[in-house]
Amino acid sequence: MYTAKKSFLFIFSLLLFREMHAQKKLGTETRQQKEKRMAWWAHDRFGMFIHWGLYAQPARHEWVKRWERMSNEQYQPYFDMFNPDMFDPKTWAKQAKAAGMKYAVLTTKHHEGFCLFDSKYTDYKATNTKAKRDLVKEYVDAFRAEGIKIGFYYSLIDWHHPDFTVDGMHPLQPKSEADSDYAKINKGRDWAKYKAYLHNQIRELLTNYGKIDILWLDFSYPNPNGHGKGKNDWGSVELLKMIRQLQPGIIVDNRLDLDEYADGADFATPEQVKPSELQSQYGGLPFETCQTFSGSWGYFRDENSWKSNRELLTLLITAVSKSGNLILNVGPTARGYFDYRAVRALDSLAMWMKYNNQAIYGCTQAPAEFKAPENTLLTYNPVTKKLYLHLMQYNQAALTLPGYAGKIKYAQFLHDNSEIKWQAAGDNGSNLVIKLPQQPNVEIPVIELTLQP
Ligand code: GLC
């Protein structure tokens, strides 16, 4: 009797402890249901981000309005002049598909507040420019027709809306950080109206364009200088509930400031981090690293820091080798086409992906028993049981794979299925030694290792 009471107390306090330390949840989805919902995303691995808005015209960063502290009046010429006469999303979709990108995310509205879609809640939209039409609709139709999954980026921040209160990141930020100066400049701005606007527009986006696969809301900054915005400002909890209700299958990023909830986000968004800094886990969330070709997200005419094909491939392969995704950004020109540098980058990705995509799609981190030798990266397809050895630097000296012997049935180059010879050597013959042939004409050659069943 006594021990029963004791163990009851023990179990009770354990449960209490777990309850107190469990993360809160907003919904009731199980782990299996979540895995199923996210299966396409975890399989596809590679997406295209598209940052397009009025900022393509100044062509010196999508934050130009903030960086140059422009007022709405000073920014107005970009609205008046906007005329994307060469906008042809069917071509964009073909370019994305050829590069091996399986999903896309377009900025329906960026921080500047301009809407590429026909929202009934604003006049500050593409339909009222020389474009005269809903550019989001055309994007959706064109990408869907190519079998590419559809994503929307929507900026929580809005530097145009009259009720969006000026904060520490706003173009009209006061010179002093005194609360009284903020109060003065924010007089007459009604946050409740902006919050309603934000919810209404997200409702429109998730109602008027059919199935939306992924949503990128950007971003929260709860406390910079005491003048920031976060979950309470956006109404993030209600927002996420509405999103899930309107589009039950949708996958949502982690920028709503809901980290305290176990289901407050579906994926982490490490931005512009170096491959060596990518981690496999971000607080229990899988990741999608977002990266630019050259530094800025919007079209930046004079930027000269374009990544090489090798650097882009390294980002993609590294992401997958850590069970993550890569979303790579294009900033189309103000006339609506991808400029020659973007096209060149996409073409060279297409060239590699055409022959090596099996080492990306459906792949993930390799089982721990396989260690990647220096200057290589491993990806692994758990369904086909193939291990992919990416030769990040080609060195014709022998390559030793520690402890691999006995585990491998066959080795070949992935791009042409040409056999790669190997032999067991080293400690008790447990290492597998490959003598590499001449370097093939592939930016990063991949050896496909078929595992013993
Ligand atoms: C940032 C920037 C932005 C870009 C985004 C993409 O938060 O504000 O310009 O859209 O990241 O991740």
UniProtKB/TrEMBL annotation:
GO CC field: lysosome
Residue span(s) of domain Glycoside hydrolase family 29 N-terminal: 22-357
Annotated EC: 3.2.1.51
Pfam families (UniProt xref): Alpha_L_fucos
Keywords per UniProt: Glycosidase, Hydrolase, Signal
Gene Ontology BP term (one): fucose metabolic process
InterPro entries named in the record: FUC_metazoa-typ, GH, Glyco_hydro_29, Glyco_hydro_29_N
Signal peptide (UniProt feature, chain positions): none
Single GO MF annotation: alpha-L-fucosidase activity
Site (May be important for catalysis) location in chain: C290
Its biological purpose: Alpha-L-fucosidase is responsible for hydrolyzing the alpha-1,6-linked fucose joined to the reducing-end N-acetylglucosamine of the carbohydrate moieties of glycoproteins.
Protein known as: alpha-L-fucosidase
Species this chain originates from: Niastella vici
